[in-house]
């Protein structure tokens, strides 16, 4: 098989600091995929969920898929910063673990601060994102095949465990974190929220597997594209076949937790809009549905596979004129900053609410900001803060380990 090394972008002779990044340090295709995920989440938040009782194509494309793509890419990032194809070992591994843990804490803090702004109808993903980072630490050193296998197994087991626990201990899942104690916040982040970390870590496992691959190889990207598309289609077909069994539709209608529905035809638009991160607990048939943000096995598989296909397509596309892709999709290199900016922009006191017409101006702000930072080869402000703090933690742990080693020596 032919291996092609991406051509470095010319004109970079300085050493990258915490505020700057050289092109050789990133896979542009992953940044393109991140930009796609960011714009997808903006579409999901701004455009109407239904039009004349039907879910528009734009919402069906992005709802669930964009957030899952973010999570899979988070796993890929974790793998890359901890060694890429060859995971770090020894003291470096301990330093990496410390840096990831601190990164997780900082992101949770950012997310909870944004949650306090109470943007109507929006569940901020960052607190869950940070918890996922922390949960991934023990698994960072596994090989790609092990991570993929673990991710698929988790898609099967985790929804069942979640259903059992929530059936035994029913709790409210509505709203954000306001008014909750530490235990309530933990329960929502881990099990009952919009992006429950217990089930969503399956996305990180698969993303970490991607980050451990040789992403410079075209055959790896092609495998992600084709394999992802095939698995996504398989998940949809299997879900349709199972839920079409006699009596299943009636049981799902009878146990629906949302607005009152009396037929499968009336329930379908509700499912297309998406659930609140988890399935209803009154029937085991809910674990067979393929609905956005349901956390069922078919949903996890379909969204993971779609994410892998998008990543594969982006890696293939960016093999040609990578610097152009890097600039046009520069928003993908600073999604923490720009996602946070988006959460602020959707507040009516920040940006007058003109309905769907506000989408293009807000996307323009995000795209232009990303392009400017990419042209200047700068990291986003929040990315810089996270990098500085996490690197400082890693250096502190490294010095401590060195002192202990010297004393033992």
From TrEMBL:
It comes from the Bacteria. Keywords: Membrane, Transmembrane, Transmembrane helix. InterPro entries: HGSNAT_cat. The keyword Ribosomal protein does not apply. The keyword Transmembrane applies. Residues 26-223 form the Heparan-alpha-glucosaminide N-acetyltransferase catalytic domain. The chain crosses the membrane at residues 27-47, 67-86, 98-114, 120-140, 147-165, 185-210, 222-242, 300-317, 324-347, 359-376. Pfam families: HGSNAT_cat. This is Heparan-alpha-glucosaminide N-acetyltransferase catalytic domain-containing protein.
């Amino acid at each position: 098989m032919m291996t092609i090394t991406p051509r470095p972008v010319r004109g970079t002779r300085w050493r990258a600091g915490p505020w700057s990044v050289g092109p050789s340090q990133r896979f542009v295709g992953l940044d393109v995929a991140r930009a796609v995920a960011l714009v997808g989440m903006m579409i999901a938040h701004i455009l109407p969920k239904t039009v004349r009782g039907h879910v528009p194509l734009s919402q069906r494309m992005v709802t669930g898929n964009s957030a899952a793509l973010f999570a899979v890419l988070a796993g890929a990032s974790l793998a890359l910063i901890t060694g890429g194809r060859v995971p770090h070992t020894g003291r470096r591994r301990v330093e990496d673990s410390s840096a990831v843990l601190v990164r997780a804490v900082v992101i949770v803090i950012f997310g909870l601060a944004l949650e306090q702004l109470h943007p109507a109808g929006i569940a901020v993903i960052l607190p869950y994102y940070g918890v996922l980072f922390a949960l991934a630490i023990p698994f960072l050193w596994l090989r790609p095949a092990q991570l993929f296998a673990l991710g698929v197994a988790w898609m099967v087991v985790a929804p069942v465990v979640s259903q059992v626990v929530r059936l035994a201990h029913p709790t409210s899942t509505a709203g954000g974190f306001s008014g909750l104690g530490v235990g309530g916040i933990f329960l929502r982040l881990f099990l009952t929220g919009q992006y429950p970390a217990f089930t969503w870590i399956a996305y990180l496992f698969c993303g970490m597997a991607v980050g451990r691959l040789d992403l410079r190889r075209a055959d790896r990207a092609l495998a992600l594209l084709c394999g992802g598309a095939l698995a996504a289609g398989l998940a949809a077909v299997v879900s349709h076949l199972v839920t079409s069994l006699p009596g299943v539709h009636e049981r799902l209608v009878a146990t629906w937790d949302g607005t009152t529905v009396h037929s499968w035809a009336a329930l379908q638009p509700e499912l297309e809009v998406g659930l609140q991160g988890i399935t209803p607990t009154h029937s085991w048939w809910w674990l067979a549905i393929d609905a956005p943000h349901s956390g069922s096995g078919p949903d996890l598989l379909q969204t993971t596979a779609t994410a892998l296909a998008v990543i594969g397509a982006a890696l293939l596309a960016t093999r040609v004129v990578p610097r152009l892709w890097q600039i046009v999709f520069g928003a993908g290199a600073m999604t923490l900053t720009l996602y946070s900016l988006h959460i602020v922009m959707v507040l009516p006191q920040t940006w007058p609410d003109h309905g769907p017409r506000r989408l293009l101006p807000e996307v323009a702000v995000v795209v232009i900001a990303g392009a400017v930072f990419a042209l200047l080869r700068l990291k986003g402000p929040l990315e810089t803060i996270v990098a500085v703090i996490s690197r400082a933690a890693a250096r502190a742990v490294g010095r401590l380990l060195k002192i202990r080693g010297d004393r033992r020596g």
